[in-house]
TrEMBL record:
InterPro entries: NAD(P)-bd_dom_sf (IPR036291), SDR_fam (IPR002347). The keyword Oxidoreductase applies. It comes from Linum tenue. GO terms for molecular function: oxidoreductase activity. Belongs to the short-chain dehydrogenases/reductases (SDR) family. Gene3D superfamilies: NAD(P)-binding Rossmann-like Domain (3.40.50.720). Keywords: Oxidoreductase. This is NAD(P)-binding protein. Pfam families: adh_short.
C-alpha cells in the first residue's frame, strides 16, 4: 500500500512495485488519481495489480488490502506537503500552515504505521517505509513547518524500528533531495 500515489516519487514507486509483481493499493486524496496514474502503461497482462483508493489512510484501507490480497507486506507512507514558502523564515511562518503540514506529514505517517503495524505484527513480517527528506541530515533552505515535520517522522521511524523489529517488521525511511511535483 502506498499513500500519496498520484504524483512523482509515489507514482514511480507504485509502477515499479506493480511491474515487479506486487499487488499495489494506492491511497490518495487527489480526486484525479485515476488520470494521474494512467501514464503507468503497464503491459496488457501486468504481473502486478494497481488499485486506487481516494481516501485518507485509515484502518479500513489496510483492511481493504488484507481482504483483497490476504496480507499487507509493505506500507510506503509517502504522502506529504511542503507548506507555504513564506515559512522559510520563522517570523513569517504561519501557525495554521504549521498545523496543516504536521497533520498531513506527521499524523498521516503515524496512522499509516499504526494500522500497518497492527496487521504486520500478527503476521510476524512486513516493511514500513517513510519518505522523509535530506533536510533531516543536513541544514538547508526549506520551510520550517516542513523541516519540523520530517524530523518528527525520522524520530517515529527510529522508535518503530526498535518496537517492531522483534516482530519481524522492518521500518526505514528514504530521504530524497527536493523533487519538483
Amino acid at each position: 500500500m502506498l499513500t500519496g500515489g498520484a504524483s512523482d516519487i509515489d507514482a514511480f514507486a507504485a509502477k515499479l512495485f506493480a511491474q515487479n509483481g506486487a499487488k499495489v493499493i494506492i491511497a490518495d486524496v487527489q480526486s484525479d488519481l485515476h488520470r494521474r496514474t494512467d501514464h503507468f502503461h503497464l503491459p496488457p497482462r501486468p504481473i502486478g495489480h494497481l488499485r486506487q483508493v481516494q481516501r485518507r489512510i485509515q484502518d479500513r484501507r489496510v483492511d481493504t488490502a488484507v481482504s483483497a490480497h490476504g496480507k499487507l507486506d509493505i506500507m510506503f507512507s509517502n504522502a506529504g506537503i511542503m507548506g507555504q514558502l513564506a515559512g522559510m523564515q520563522i517570523a513569517t511562518t504561519d501557525s495554521q500552515d504549521l498545523a496543516k503540514v504536521l497533520e498531513v506529514n506527521v499524523r498521516g505517517a503515524f496512522h499509516c504505521a499504526k494500522h500497518a503495524a497492527c496487521v504486520m505484527i500478527g503476521g510476524k513480517k512486513g516493511v514500513i517505509i517513510f519518505t522523509t527528506s535530506n533536510i533531516t541530515t543536513t541544514f538547508g533552505n526549506a520551510p520550517h513547518a516542513y523541516t519540523t515535520s520530517k524530523h518528527v517522522v525520522v524520530g517515529l521511524m527510529k522508535n518503530l524500528t526498535v518496537e517492531l523489529g522483534g516482530y519481524g517488521v522492518w521500518v526505514n525511511s528514504i530521504s530524497p533531495n527536493g523533487v519538483p511535483t
